[in-house]
Specification:
about 230 residues; DNA polymerase, domain 1; Cytidine Deaminase, domain 2; five-stranded mixed β-sheet; 5 strands; about 15% strand
Length: about 230
């Protein structure tokens, strides 16, 4: 009779530990193993899980890595990369749907979770807007523009135009700093003030502008910049 692969017992024990004790009982690489079990049913995935974690530096950076970057790792096929990105997409959509169910200003911690998971590890700047109604319920979450590693163009008239199209009465502006430093630049401050001025005649409120980075985030409102 053929012997079972040495890793089959390990898989069973890891699954049992996850089910009985929860995610906190597992290290990051072990959670990655559980995911890889489904995509790669016939191989020992522990070395690959550790390689992925070492290559990308952390679990958040791994899950935020682009599809093509994942496929550069030996042993990661298109199907496996898609499986990883699918889990990331499900997590993002879950948080987004939670944010849509009650006033977003009352769910600020969850909003920051969403922004960090979607933007903190991006390699280019992205300018995002949360469009809110009179009750501060999320109408739409849109990326308005993407730029280079240190610049994203934002056009106040286009921002206001889109807000009017959606019937939004308030906005939260978000963009990321790939450098890892969330400190606002003079251009960030100037752009924010221009959007505030463009929105005033239409009684559209800018609640905040958040800069997201690997090393934290900065709120213009908390810093007295709005």
């Amino acid at each position: 009779m053929d012997k079972k692969p040495h890793y089959s017992g390990h898989r069973a024990r890891l699954r049992e530990r996850f089910v009985s004790s929860g995610e906190d009982a597992l290290q990051d690489y072990e959670l990655i193993e559980l995911l890889l079990f489904m995509a790669l049913p016939r191989r020992d995935v522990k070395p690959l899980a550790k390689t992925l974690l070492a290559r990308f530096g952390s679990l958040p950076e791994l899950m935020s890595a682009p599809h093509h970057a994942l496929m550069q790792i030996e042993g990661i096929s298109e199907n496996t990369a898609t499986a990883i990105k699918t889990v990331t997409a499900i997590a993002h959509r879950t948080i987004k749907q939670e944010l849509s169910q009650k006033p977003i200003l009352n769910n600020w911690a969850r909003l920051m979770d969403y922004c960090r998971s979607t933007m903190a590890h991006e390699t280019k700047e992205h300018f995002r807007i949360f469009f809110l109604n009179k009750k501060n319920i999320l109408i739409e979450d849109e990326v308005q523009g993407s730029g280079t590693i240190d610049h994203t163009p934002a056009y106040p008239r286009e921002v206001v135009k889109r807000a009017l199209e959606l019937g939004a009465t308030a906005l939260i502006l978000i963009h990321n700093h790939p450098s890892g430093d969330p400190t606002p630049s003079p251009d960030d401050i100037e752009m924010t003030n221009a959007i505030i001025e463009a929105a005033k005649p239409f009684e559209i409120t800018i609640h905040d502008h958040i800069i997201i980075a690997r090393n934290g985030h900065t709120s213009f409102k908390n810093e007295g910049l709005i």
